[in-house]
Amino acid sequence: MFDGREPLYVQIADQIRDDVLSGALQAEEQVMSTTQYATTFRINPATAAKAFAELVDEGVLYKRRGVGMFVAPGARETLRAERRESFFTDVVDPVLAQARVLGIDVDEIVARLREHAAHDHPTPQAGTR
Amino acid sequence: MTGFGVQVRDLTVRYGPTTALDQVSFEIRPGVITGLLGRNGSGKTTFLSVAAAFRRGTSGAVLVDGEDPWENARVMGGTCLVRESGDVVADEPITENLRFLAERRPTFDRATAESLLDRLEIDPSKRPDKLSRGQRSAFGVVVGVATRAPLTLLDEVHLGMDAPARYAFYDALLADWMAHPRTIVVSSHLIDEVERLLEDVVILDHGRVLAADDAATLREQGLTVTGPADEVDAFVTSRRVVARQTLGRTAQATVIGTAPDDEARARAAGLELGAVGLQDLFVHLTDHAGDRAAAPLTPQESR
Q1: Which residues, numbered 7 to 36 in chain A, qualify as contacts with chain B under a Cβ-Cβ cut-off of 8 Å?
Q2: In chain A, which residues have their Cβ closer than 8 Å to the Cβ of B276?
Q3: What is the β-pairing status of strands B208-214 and B79-82?
Q4: Which neighbouring-strand residues pair with B12?
Q5: Is there a contact between B88 and B140 (Cβ–Cβ < 8 Å)?
Q6: β-bridge partners, B195
Q7: Boundaries of each HTH gntR-type domain copy (chain A) (predicted)?
Q8: CA B254 to CA B301: how far, in whole Å?
Q9: Domains assigned to chain B
Q10: How far is B133 from chain A (nearest CA, A)?
Q11: Which residues are bridge partners to B222 per DSSP?
């Protein structure tokens, strides 16, 4: 775990965001402490603290003095709103660019998506990564 | 106890005609684990020896907890340098060494030492000079961790230790440091292995400081830019390029220094940006082959 090329604290923050989005971490649930992160993943606790600080700034986590870090109420909705905004630029646009290169028509893509949507459950909830 | 900080100001150390350290200045923050990285002969051991008052600098100053460490009983009582040689009584059993340390080091914790010996599978009835190379190094680690000195300096202590022993060492160091915060300096060139333990990094090269910053900031300084060769070249114009590779019409350049609009520019130009690991950054910065003189990160680049 956490062996990507991104800085470690970014990977930790992303992991927590994904867990909040997927519901693995619920509002008001406590996240692992910096010490637990440090011993579990053999990292300096300051690295985990940096990820937490970023998430506190974003309103995903909040700190209870002397107790630890908790998922903020409404964090999931905030993250979903953000991810929805970037979904088209980060996910859809690259698909279109790739399709253009391969000579795939937009109608073909739309047809494919419709077909899948008909088979799948109506609202997939997993993270987008 | 949060540990001793170290201030290094214009420190120069010469051995005869050789300049081991050339007017270096940097700071080691108290209570932090700092990695001292550098190739062989870069001046790591020389610096640690001056900080531990094993030798004096030729000019400039090193202040440990605000004072000159030289013949300074208070500062030396709280400083522990573990070198490759171990600095233990080699011809007395380990148990005897522990007794000796417990008598002389007020912060030494014998129970910690014994549990570490057990974890590293070292027989305490043996003499250090009868141990294998890896076990001798491991005993040095035990001494360094269990002494719990406010300034703990570990100079290439991992040498000869096999991977499981090294990971046991990293775990023990981290756990003990979290329970008893203090200043720890780890010199190593196994950067991939120690990187995650480090909060700060000092990179020495040929007796000079190439970079001194917190590890995350340092890592963020490196950037790879990949895409069509002409777009890559346009993107990296007037930047410090430390490596460049081409494959057909695709190029990848590694640059030092980032700008806030990098992502937007890269996206517009159809380029892909990637992070550079500390190990790669270190190799690029200290690789002198190919006539590429190493230049220190400018304050702007490294902050």
Answers
A1: 7-9, 35
A2: 5
A3: unpaired
A4: B59
A5: yes
A6: none
A7: 6-74
A8: 14
A9: 6-206 (3.40.50.300), 218-302 (3.30.70)
A10: 25
A11: B256
